[in-house]
Design a protein that fits this description.
alpha/beta, Alpha-Beta Plaits, Rossmann fold, 3 domains, two-stranded antiparallel ribbon, 10 strands, 26% helix
Length: 275
């Protein structure tokens, strides 16, 4: 089991008042033997909607090994509680930028022919934070645009998503699931003329600069991406300059700490652009 954030209940502080339970639409909490209990890791999304409703401060968030959260099982439980509960759950996911879970929930509702109206129906474009430029875009499956406005044929972009910068990427973005992941140093696309068709094609992308940014923060973000998704392969593309090798080390450490076995490949690009 992978580590993830999940709620923790202090039994000594909990008085069994159950005020937290209505504020957990996922159905993860129940009163058992006079205390509120987390009945299943599968139902807890770790976002802590229940915390603010505990008068005793008995609920906190911890990171531990836990069964993966299962959005479909949660939705099977939520639809029984009516449309207001469904809407509260969707808004909860949206507010926390949980795009992957939100899309899974929407897909489930469509399958069951249940219509829920939210303030913004373009949920697949939910923002990460408040920056419109960081809004998630998934380009997979979109029709290729091979001609520019003048009608001439140009080189095709192989970019499959937005954003791409590691600091802006939510670890559970839908384009990471089942992907081949390319983690590239910022300078690689500028140095290598074949970056799109040789390195990027068919891959989800994350970019960063190990010299100018916080490498430790990068490592933690990469670790979260690996833990929260089924990644097929990881390719790290770095420049030949010494400072760039810190990015590969961060990927290597993140993969090791995740406990997962994933093929990791390193590509070094020279300042002249050659691999």
């Amino acid at each position: 089991m992978a580590k993830r954030k999940i709620i923790k209940i202090d039994e000594d502080k909990c008085n069994g008042c159950a005020l937290c339970i209505p504020n957990c639409p996922e159905g993860a909490l129940k009163v058992i033997d006079g205390k509120v209990r987390l009945i299943s890791d599968l139902f807890c999304d770790g976002l802590g909607a229940c915390i603010g409703y505990c008068p005793e401060g008995a609920i906190t968030i911890e990171e531990r090994e836990a069964e993966p959260y299962d959005e479909r099982k949660v939705m099977e439980n939520i639809v029984k509680q009516g449309k207001n509960t469904i809407k509260a759950h969707l808004e909860h996911l949206k507010e926390h930028n949980e795009t992957r879970y939100l899309n899974e929930a929407i897909k489930f509702l469509k399958e069951k022919n249940i219509k829920i109206q939210l303030e913004d129906d373009r949920m697949e474009h939910s923002h990460f934070g408040s920056c419109p430029g960081a809004a998630i875009r998934d380009f997979r499956g979109k029709e290729d645009k091979k001609a520019d406005s003048s009608g001439s044929i140009g080189q095709k972009s192989e970019l499959r998503q937005w954003p791409v910068q590691l600091n802006l990427l939510p670890p559970n973005a839908p384009f990471f699931q089942g992907s081949d992941l390319l983690i590239a140093a910022d300078c690689v696309p500028f140095a290598n003329p074949n970056f799109h068709n040789k390195l990027l094609k068919g891959k989800a992308l994350a970019i960063g600069c190990p010299k100018l940014d916080d490498v430790e923060a990068y490592k933690e973000k990469i670790k979260s991406i690996i833990e929260m998704n089924d990644i097929n392969t990881i390719t790290t593309a770095i420049m030949e300059v010494p400072c760039c090798h810190a990015l590969y080390s961060a990927v290597e450490e993140a993969l090791d700490e995740s406990g997962k076995r994933i093929t990791l490949k390193k590509i070094v690009v020279g300042i002249d652009g050659n691999i």
